[in-house]
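TICKET #2291
ISSUE: user wants both folds in one file
ATTACHMENT 1:
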Amino acid sequence: MYISQQIAADAVNQVLLGRNLTLALPAALTVFPNATPQQRGAAQDLSYGTLRFYGEIDAYLVQLLEKPLTDNRIHSILLVAIYQLLHDKADAFTVVNQAVQAVGELKRPVPKSWAKGLVNAILRNFLRQKDQLNAKLNQSEVAIYSYPQWWINKLKVQYPNHWQSMLEIGNQHPPMTLRVNTQKISIDEYMQLLRRQDIEAVELGEQAIVLTKPVAVEKIPGFTAGIVSVQDYGAQMAAPLLAMQNNKRVLDACCAPGGKTGHILELAEVTLTALDNDENRLLRVQSNLDRLGLQAQLLVGDASSNSWWDGVCFDGILADVPCTASGIVRRHVDIKWLRREADVASFVVQQAKILPNLWRMLAKGGRLLYVTCSVFNEENQGQVDHFLQNNADATQLPYPLQAQSNISQLNGQLIPSIAHDGFFYALLQKN
């Protein structure tokens, strides 16, 4: 099992050096091509768990070290092991032994006997001194909540009544939520299908079902046949909010990976253009549409430019703009440690280019749904307010009551909850 520790430690180390976990973990796995499916799955769990609680784990480790380690690999192995000792059900003796084995497999220039002795001593000191070490953690909000301090401070100011629950939700495992294509099967019929296969689930909305326990995508009944998709309940609000009718011309800007694209087409027979600036990501959109049996025109293009536009206005535009992704941290645990406070302003500048550019492509009387998966006001209502001040032909429509079932929201800002992630929606109409 120490192989799982090694893989996880490598992935964690890469993230702390600035690499996205979706790239770091596959890269770490390639180093161990003979790892069993069980070891690979354990490595994924360990890497996600370690990064989820990195603030807490690192606070323990800092107290245990006389001086910072110069070898990042040893540091990451210790982080993974302390995560296991704090949050995993593994036997403590086994965790320590595996960590010693893992560090013993490191290639030079690390002296193996020194490294093994160091790891063994640090982890055993942790087990002996855990209570005393824990008492000192209460002095640090980074250690308590496992978020950067700037992030905590921002939520305190912007969400004085919700910031603690938002941080806590972000450290939980996300639910596995399905979107049922009710054009092909009813919710009741699909629930019966799940029951026949002994899969426990709960209805959440008109098209949403939450699985009690996650299931491998290929084992989800009806997934390959296109009658159901995996999509967070918060993300499922987009297509109903845009509320397009048949025969309308619709643009889905920044569309990849295509979950909202498919949902729009499931709800209405529209002529849809799906735009993204990454050709490889559009391949995933096409794959999703093929699975669902749906069609759209896929274009490679920059949403802040009009070089790809044919000059014909759209009746509806979904502007799912690039953002900090601060509302989906329980699914992307690395975001907390990769983002910097300055990144917020950078995304705001990018969004401020996209929104007015797409607005010019919207027909009079048409609707544009501005969407982010962020909880930071600068990217959300703050961005929309700035846009409204500079565009007299734009009106922000109220967040409709019928879309609020099981949704925790404040004026279009979805507050992260057990049921959904933290999306923001602003529906704008062209006068």
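ATTACHMENT 2:
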Amino acid sequence: MMTKQFLLTEDGSYTVAIPEMNVTYHNIHGALQESVHIYLQTGFLYVLPFVTHQTISVFEMGFGTGFNALITALEAIKLKRQVYYYTTEAFPLTIQEAQILQQDQLLNTGNLALQLHQASWEQDVVINPNFILHKTKWSLLDLTLPRQFDVVYFDAFAPTIQPELWTEVVFANLYKHINQNGVLVTYSSKGSVRRAMKAVGFEVEKLAGPKGKAEIVRAIKRST
């Protein structure tokens, strides 16, 4: 059983730390601002103009604190765009742990964050008419993705912690399941990560990161 610590970050949001692994789920300079900058703005909002079909499909590697799902759900509701959100998490937080994060209080979202954490696993759950959530506990290495996606939020632990998830094999499988002009966004701009992405066909660009992170990566599957 991993020991979890709940740390208040600079923007008033909480992250989770695992001391024995020397990792945190989010940047201590701001968990919320990190999620908004990397995943919502660089990923979801970037790809919206290219999506011509009705439902935008998002795959998240690493449900974690649920922040990425929460801000995406809020955006879907605000924009009245239908989103199908598929996410995997091998070590989910308990409901009691999720409540420590106080996400609903922070964003004044009623009980939306709690709904995401309470949603049943291994099935589609209608959180809102514009947001369907499917959570699975399968490891990414064993997971068979069920559909094509417009956006991939790649939020695994760092390559030094989970090197098996940052390989050409993994990125090739994701590339195959991304729609044309779809994107994969991640916080890691490590050279080996970018090279692995390029090797399987992605067009890779480095972008300015959020506070505390110099660079992030957006990988694009261009139309052929």
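RESOLUTION: both attachments delivered.
EXTRA DETAIL ON ATTACHMENT 2: The mean pLDDT is 96.
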